[in-house]
């Protein structure tokens, strides 16, 4: 089997000028990787005819499959469809099936259809329609110069549905590919250059078809193992074996795998133990609760929490002793400790966790500069408090604090499991 | 003045395979746009020598400025620096200034330096160092074939600091550019194809150097006006005039401008009125609080909130009547109403807002399928409840609910202002 190369093109001035985050190309890259395609390049161009054509020509020289998103809306700044038709030497014709779908959508939404909506039913005559049941812009599959060109609407949930229902299955059938297996190992609390010498011996013994990459991120380093081979079973088991050997070396720094975040690891541990959790947040302002409730099914172990932003709320609603705040300050070891303990008792949870700190940009003092944060975990055996010295950036501080407090809880849950 | 074209290249297999979100290219695009550069293309390639070289060659054919990020870490999967040196016909030499910076960083962090760290001080001999005070991988500025190549580390906060401190100021000086002014107008509750005919008359009268683009997004449509001209003052005032005229036509759908989200609009209105807010969340699980507290200075108007995930917490902590939940269900108009009212009273806030719904994937019934959500806003004059019928996707439901409840509050604040 030969490698199948794919290229992703996203269209829109708003992507070039950073007015939106291009999550489409990320998602598509991940999905194509899963079915064994090699992604050769990702390109974003503006809503300009000559740029779209140049990107298509260059992609065709490199890849067998080109996936494009964006530029299919009803309004006049969208020129993709006409450009694609010209590029493949075709013309736009009214597609009855697409028109019916648009009519249906307007009927369900109880809205009046206009000429702009009707124009969305015109597609290149040779294109196979990839039906978009969630919106009015159709997906298209076009074969040209022995390459496959898939054009999809830019609205993420529409694009994903079309990919999952038709484009990905058709691509899998058209190109049987060597199997690619990734394992991502996520570590926290250790830097890239400290990990490297620890795992050098293991790394030097990797077979040539399994590669290691370091992906550093705010306070964390992720290690990605990628194996490529003709036999799915063999490559999966080899990569998993290597991952296990790697984890053994750096065990205490590993907090999650693959798409998991620390909140899913914590969720699984709580589920296993049939224990419950409550949160008391100051500087994270709801981020911890938000991340915990991103996990479907969290209602089994997560009872709820308090966002105690003002001191009055900390005292009246959470029950922190007024004197504690007056004597030590809202940002202190003592307040963090009481917050975790009080929320645990108040909510009748097995674990209570808390955050309090100076997220910034304002509120810093010489003694407690921006970035000073306390986190705590309380259970029936006691309370552990940790001080963090973070950055000057509010967003960075919120993110680091949320992952640190969930990691503190993870460590506590692990200790008690062993 | 001629247009200055820039291209952005991000390097890393993890970007191609969607294992990380490429926020660097988004941020760089936005910043280059602000200093008047035209972004011609964004490209992501893997950690492969020949791909990096091909991307550089193609970028050089299109752009005067090439900004690259990634591939500068200490470990062996990073080959960017050597590839750049070869590409510009140069060799890597030890740079004393960079070495001192690395030593300093290790000293401050109280960690041992190793050979991998030392290797980061090698850079192409012709490169100007763009000092990275936050990390060990240096930024580099290289002139080649009359083009400028800027290579930056991939860690976002390091990259941003180098851009802000040295690369952007140097680029502004090197290329005086025509001024580009953007205004983004964000609407909610109306579709692209309904806006288009409403504003057609206005759009047809736009001067040729001011362009309109539609950027649809989950439940929202953003309208971007872009003006380009030699004179800053004139282009800014013309774009702002046109934006004002546009907003007049669609006023009640406009919820925010530019980088603002609905939470900043709401924050400003609350600040103006010197009013306070408390939140009671079920299905959004803290997202509303999290978004409100993303805004620096929110402690002036945001007191805090309750994440009432379990019914027991809704009853015991929030004070919702047990009978209300038993008779109407936790997902009901009545429960949403009580949640908003109770949190307002409990926290002594001027406004209370609430969310309760079936976010999914579990928990749906025939009567209340996944996507059924109630939101409410309470103040001293009364409580407004709204029912939403959203999607089957948990993440989509959380996002739509958070923006809907903040928009409901925004409308209430506006009504009372008028």
Assembly state: homodimer
The CATH superfamily of the largest domain in chain A is known as: MoaB/Mog-like domain
Low-confidence stretches of chain A: none
Average pLDDT confidence of chain A is 92
Shape of chain A: globular
The SS-based structural class of chain A is alpha/beta
Question: Can you tell me the CATH architecture of the largest domain in chain A?
Answer: 3-Layer(aba) Sandwich
User: Would you give the CATH topology of the largest domain in chain A?
Assistant: Molybdenum Cofactor Biosythetic Enzyme, Chain A
Biggest interface and residues each: A-B, 105 and 104 residues
Strand order, biggest sheet of chain A? 2-1-3-8-7-6
Strand percentage of chain A, roughly?
Answer: 25-35%
Radius of gyration of chain A (CA) equals 26 Å
Number of helices of chain A: 16
Give a short account of the largest sheet of chain A.
6 strands, mixed
- Classified by CATH, the class of the largest domain in chain A is Alpha Beta
Helix percent band of chain A: 40-55%
> N-to-C terminal Cα separation of chain A, in Å?
46 Å
Describe the structure.
2 copies of one chain form a homodimer. In chain A, a hairpin with a 2-residue loop joins strand 16 and strand 17. Chain A folds into 3 domains: 5-174, Molybdenum Cofactor Biosythetic Enzyme, Chain A; 179-257, Alpha-Beta Plaits (2-Layer Sandwich), CATH 3.30.70.2860; 262-417, Maf protein. Chain A has helices spanning 13-16, 23-34, 49-62, 80-87, 96-108, 115-119, 156-174, 192-198, 200-204, 232-249, 262-273, 287-292, 311-316, 322-328, 333-347, 394-417, and strands spanning 5-11, 38-45, 65-69, 92-94, 122-124, 128-130, 139-144, 147-152, 179-188, 210-217, 220-229, 254-257, 277-281, 302-308, 351-357, 372-379, 382-389. In chain A, 42% of the residues lie in helices and 26% in strands. In chain A, strands 2-1-3-8-7-6 form a 6-stranded mixed sheet, sandwiched between helices. In chain A, strands 14-13-15-16-17 form a 5-stranded mixed sheet. The two termini of chain A are 46 Å apart. In chain A, helix 2 (23-34) packs parallel to helix 7 (156-174), helix 3 packs across helix 4 and helix 11 runs parallel beside helix 16. The mean pLDDT of chain A is 92. Chain A is built from 16 helices and 17 strands. Chain A is of the alpha/beta class. The longest helix of chain A has 24 residues, at 394-417. The first copy, chain A, is globular. Chains A and B meet through helix 1, helix 2, strand 2, helix 3 and helix 8 of A and helix 1, helix 2, strand 2, helix 3 and helix 8 of B.
